[in-house]
Amino acid sequence: MKTYTIECIPNVSSADPDLIEDITAAIMGFKDVDLRFVDPGHSVNRTVFTYLGPVESVLSATAELIRIALAYINMEHQKGIHPRMGAVDVCPFVLLDDSINEEHLIERVREFSAEIGERFALPIYNYEQSATRKERENLADVRRGQYEGLAARFERGDLPDHGPQEWNEAAREHGATAMGVRSLMVAYNINLTGRPNKELKPIAEKMAVALREKNSGLPGVKAIAWYLPEFDIVQVSCNLTKPFEAGVCEVFDYARSLAKSFGCDAPSSELIGCIPRSQFTTYTEEELGFGQFKPFNESRILPL
Description:
By secondary structure, the protein is an alpha+beta fold.
């Protein structure tokens, strides 16, 4: 079986088909890199790419992705319902193979961040395990204020780790990127039905609050609520940052019980990107409702 050293899951702040086509072709041009899934969202105006491979090959592919994304996206005109602060909003790297040292990967990603920041005049904040200060470990903290708040951050001295150290034309056009090594995470959304969408949205917001770890919900769960016009659906959108403590099956069960208590239903769910095979503990992908909106196949299952 082929061994993949790391996974990269960059989130690009656009769902432009031409951009997606160019980035997809570029990644597939690296023979050692395995592009597993491309997940565009039109309402969120965001595309998630998931690819695996050896460290240096993945870094080279990522540099090309960033080059293309910056050529397409001007953040002064970007709109979408997903929180974002830059054209390449977040660029996480996940260690899949314990044959290499995690500290080495963390240091290599910091070096890569510096290279990218200088090459593209791109403000980069290192986050999660690559963070150089405690207050930058959490992505929500790094992205607080979003793109619209970046100029004020520069003014008050909250400067990026790499790239421009003053608010200039490049920063204005491209925003900033959060880049770092993090643990495995599953992006997972719960679909709500049973009542009109205008009633479901406030219910979803209450469910998101109840699901979050910081509100004594499930371990590692971060959640927000939104309405997706292209699918005419209200969702509770979750990041499962401790998926081996609270995975998709546990979150699905809890979300369904919450929905019932609010007088609606949570009949299905949606996966963003890829998922470890070990996440299917009590439900299959069919029972979870995967594939309702976007194709779900074996390429989206990681051998973990």
